[in-house]
Design goal:
Layout: H1 19-33, H2 45-48, E1 63-64, E2 73-80, E3 90-94, E4 106-111, E5 114-121, E6 132-135, E7 143-152, E8 155-166, E9 173-176, E10 192-197, E11 202-209, E12 219-223, E13 234-239, E14 243-244, E15 249-254, E16 261-266
Antiparallel strand pairs: 1-14, 2-13, 3-12, 4-11, 5-10, 6-9, 7-8, 15-16
Length: about 270
């Protein structure tokens, strides 16, 4: 880079430097060349001719509401079923940022769902994952459980619960579709599995009314009925337009020779 310094008369016609003009031009140039921020902030309003409010993402946040406007609760996922519950718990939503919603969300909890599935015989001859069907024996009640199977080497390697269902009084029976033996010489073996219901655990939470005006996914609190010994159940909520984010961190270390800061990012 080369800088030429000149004086009058060659530079006498140069316009005077204007700080205000520069300050006005920078946001316009930024808005014309950059994408809008995922987490809305008021500092970007001039650049994008918008009306954002400050909407920061904390390190502990698992989701972010990129719209920057209030949302309703779209789903609630059980993270720990807890134990000892004998009656349906009351579900409460507490705003994470202290800002009260326009309308509070309403949800109901259901107990005793399928929490795990054990593959007892992996089978052989599967060229595609088998379908998984739940049925209840004569003396068992409950409904709603669904699951998907995975295969490896022609056998069923795992079965993952996609919906635990609820109100089961015992373990439902699992039926897996038969293997497709399309290769000559393949020995077909039917896979089998067993379901495991956690009695006394919270299986699922259904959103009855999403509410409105939540800027962040609210805390979910399960309140057992008076005298109910149940405890330990936890759950996370998600807003209608939430994006799931990975946990990010910045590690600030110092290199050993000269003490210079060495900043690394990770997740």
């Amino acid at each position: 880079m080369q800088i030429n310094v000149c004086g009058p008369p060659a530079c006498s016609a140069a316009p005077a430097f204007s700080v205000s003009s520069l300050q006005a031009a920078i946001p316009a140039a930024y808005g014309a060349t950059q994408a809008q921020p995922i987490a809305k902030q008021a500092a970007y309003n001039q650049a994008f001719n918008s009306n954002f409010s400050d909407h920061y993402v904390q390190n502990v946040d698992a989701t972010v509401n990129p719209s920057g406007v209030g949302q309703g609760v779209s789903a609630v996922k059980i993270t720990l079923p807890g134990s000892g519950y004998v009656a349906t718990s009351t579900v409460s939503f507490v705003p994470m940022d202290g800002v009260q919603p326009t309308q509070a969300a309403v949800a109901t909890a259901c107990l005793n769902g399928v929490q795990a599935i054990t593959v007892t015989v992996s089978g052989a001859g599967y060229t595609a994952p088998p379908s998984v069907t739940f049925t209840t024996p004569k003396n068992v009640k409950g409904s709603g459980a669904t699951a998907v199977a995975s295969i490896s080497g022609g056998g069923v390697s795992a079965i993952s619960v996609t919906n635990p269902g609820c109100a089961y009084t015992g373990n439902p029976t699992i039926a897996l579709s038969a293997p497709a033996c399309t290769i000559n010489g393949t020995t077909c073996v039917q896979a089998t599995a067993t379901a495991n219901v956690t009695l006394g655990g919270v299986a699922s939470i259904s959103v009855i009314s999403p509410g409105s005006g939540y800027m962040k996914a609210p805390f979910v609190i399960l309140n057992p009925a008076p005298g109910d010994p149940g405890k330990g159940a936890t759950a996370d909520s998600m807003l209608a337009e939430d994006m799931v984010i990975g946990m990010k961190n910045i590690t600030e270390g110092f290199e050993p020779l000269y003490g210079r800061m060495n900043v690394e990012t990770g997740e």
